[in-house]
Amino acid sequence: MKKWTRWQDYVVVAAGAYTALSVLWTSQTGMSTAMMVTLGVLLVISGAINLALPGMPVVEWAQALVAVVLLLAPWLGNYASATGAAWTAWIAGAVALVVTAFAIRPSTEEYRHHHVAAAP
């Protein structure tokens, strides 16, 4: 697996950037601003790590966890009634979760190929 080539990670970075920046044009209530910026930045960071260092399944799983939290964020942060912010979190979280699910298996196989083959 080559660095900087996986489309899934670029999609996650874009979803995270859109989430973090969407607080500029969507109405915010409750904890929406803090949650969306934080979770968006975490998606950008995890996507960038996966792009730079492919074959690290632990980062893929952490990215999936952040995507799930983003999906649940409108209820956790009490902003499900703020439709712009809530729909942004739901859609971006779902997109990030789906593309991360596509990336977990190849990442795990890459990890096993390099680490299991090197074991004595």
From TrEMBL:
The keyword Membrane is annotated on this UniProt entry: yes
Stretches assigned to the SPW repeat-containing integral membrane domain: 7-100
Keywords: Membrane, Transmembrane, Transmembrane helix
Entry annotated with the keyword Membrane: yes
Pfam families reported for this sequence: SPW
InterPro entries, A to Z: SPW
Segments traversing the membrane: 7-25, 31-51, 58-76, 82-104
Stated name of the protein: SPW repeat protein
Native organism: Paenarthrobacter ureafaciens
